[in-house]
Amino acid sequence: MEYGNGQCFDPNASMGSNYDEQMALASSCPKKRAGRKKLQETRHPVYRGVRQRNGDRWVCEVRANNNTRIWLGTYPTVEMAARAHDVAALALRGSNACLNFADSAWRLRVPASVDHRDIQQAAAEAAEAFRGQGSEVYAVDQNSNIDNNHVMETYNQVVQQNAEYVDEEAVYNMPGLLMNMAEGMLLPPPQNPYGGYNWNDETDDCEVSLWNY
Fold first, then answer.
1. Which residues pair with 25 in a beta bridge?
2. Would you call 72 helix, strand, or coil by DSSP?
3. Helices and strands per DSSP (H, E), number in the chain
4. What is the pTM of this model?
């Protein structure tokens, strides 16, 4: 069976083994130390592109080749989020992708393009294929009994969340800003009218204008 990107799906186990040997796995590639305490506390210790939110949900995003981020959605299980990451990683990096699951290279349908909407839809489809299945392995092919309505519902949620998502580091050039502050000490930190506001607290929605000081 041939997919849109020219890759072929072969249920033969030996082909699966060959793919497994070629792909790098997250479990064998130690992560870099997270810079922010919030990321250290919420990101999964093994799976790439996965962070925990509100204690019982898992969010997924990947960094594209142009250094922007693609939001892949919020999922009820860590395995679903990890599968969503793998689809996006394969679409963006091909054989150079670092995967959460070895079998993702030949079991998941990879989108034909690197357009973020195609990647998001493929990620939603892959995640839904593993809903409620834990870490068990199930093939995703054209004959799979995936609820298309459920896939579209998940995809629509991803699109809505993506519209609300802002890459703050890219928009505000945070690494460069912090470097300039460290070198010249020209920008004093703003006074805090809200008392104990924590810049690393994602749940705090209060707005502070830097231009009022």
1. 99
2. strand
3. 8, 5
4. 0.53
Tokens read off for 107: 């079991």
Q: Does 3.30.730.10 match the CATH number of domain 13-166? A: yes
With b for 16 or more beta-carbon neighbours within 10 A and e for fewer, the 102-129 pattern comes to bbbbbbbbbbeebebeebbbbbbbbbbb
Residue 119 CA to chain centroid, in angstroms? 11
Beta bridge partner(s), residue 63: 69
pLDDT in tens, 16-39: 445 455 666 765 565 555 444 444
List, in order, residues 6 or more apart from 123 with CB less than 8 Å away.
60, 72, 73, 83, 84, 85, 87, 88, 158
Largest CA distance in the chain: 66
Gap between the Cα atoms of 51 and 58, Å rounded? 6
In the chain, domain spans: 13-166, 170-212
Q: How confident is the model at residue 56 (pLDDT cuts 50, 70, 90)?
A: confident
Give the model's pLDDT for residue 136: 40
Interhelix angle 78-93/116-129, rounded to 10 degrees, is 140
Enclosing H/E stretch for 19: helix 13-22
Other Cβ atoms closer than 10 A to 90: 26
